[in-house]
Amino acid sequence: MLLSRSFFSEIAAVVVLAFAGFTGTVAHAAEAYPHPGDNPASTLMLQGPWVPENTHDIDFVKLPRIPSKPAVVSDARPHGGVNQHNYLIHYDGRFWAMWSDGPSVEDKVGQRVKYATSEDALTWSESRYLTPVPPNSGPDSPIYNTRNPEGFRWISRGFWEREGELLALASLDEADGFFGPGLELHAFRYNKESDSWDALGVIYDNTINNFPPKKIPTGEWMMTRRSFDRHVYFLAGGTEAIDTWESFPAVSYTDSRLLAEEPYWWVLPDDNLLALFRDNNKSGYIFRAFSTDNGRTWSDPVKTNFPDASSKFHVLRMSDGRYVLVSNANPKKRDPLVLSISDDGIVFNKMGYLTGGRVIDYPHVIEHDGHLIVAFSGSKKHTCEVLKIRIVDLSVLDVQE
Prior knowledge:
Layout: H1 5-23, E1 69-75, E2 82-91, E3 94-102, E4 112-118, E5 128-129, E6 148-162, E7 165-175, E8 184-191, E9 196-205, E10 214-215, E11 221-226, E12 232-237, E13 245-251, E14 260-267, E15 273-279, E16 285-291, E17 302-307, E18 314-317, E19 323-327, E20 337-342, E21 348-355, E22 360-368, E23 371-378, E24 383-390
Antiparallel strand pairs: 1-24, 2-3, 3-4, 4-5, 6-7, 7-8, 8-9, 10-11, 11-12, 12-13, 14-15, 15-16, 16-17, 18-19, 19-20, 20-21, 22-23, 23-24
């Protein structure tokens, strides 16, 4: 007789619970291991002998220090500006960084997208504008640098290499409050001959993505979508044309259990999908859901035991198969920035300190030539910065095994 994985998971949970009852303790290790199909409701996401029962009790300052080389890509402090929404890619022999560049506080009227390039990720070119001046919102406008429904802003949304071409995504909407009813996701194509960006227009209406598209097992591209009223969807397509997508609903922003923000997803080793959500209810934990049908439907998001400062995070599957999560895990503040490692993309068992001592947020991580490059905003969103990390130096976290 063949027994299912879920049967063994249930038996293991009973055994562990019995042992916990005998010793008088009940820890998160007692919970059955999460699985996309068999156990999507598990809350386990952080586990290890070094992890306290209440993960909010982690001493984040005393985490193992991961060696890195720092660099500043852009500093908006001299003119009182803002730099955030950082993204990276390595394309045509260079590193490329893009970010939102605003006149003061984030996402006000007149904000544009800038970019810079580097050969080594440490020495960067002068920044240049990627997007044009938003409609009627230039520095000469009386509503520039305000919150006003008559003004517009561009928001950086990431690089996308598609069919050998380098695309850049940016959203455009009214700069009144959060997202405006005119919200659109635009694409720009890098023109090597003119060393400039050609506008390709809207690729999906009423949309802001969180990170650029990635491939799913069907061969389609996929990215998350938030509408102007902040509901979360998943867009699949982008193969026939950059503006051909299907939208699948995932989480309503009116769900009292979770105010889902800045979602991110990735493919697991078994080709199922996993998504994480920042919780604007400020629970202090990341929420997780699974899809077993290539993002068409998702399990109910559950609050995991992985701590979070209600901040943006990013996950990368490295070439060696491991997954790294870069986030603000300290639930009290966006300090420090940490890197966590998982062998299977579901449960993380190592965590190290990257940088801190100040407000650090909005990370994005890529891998190239034996290194991780992490981009982030520093100094309360006034700088775009990077860390260059040798992957072999992640071995400093082996002490947590």
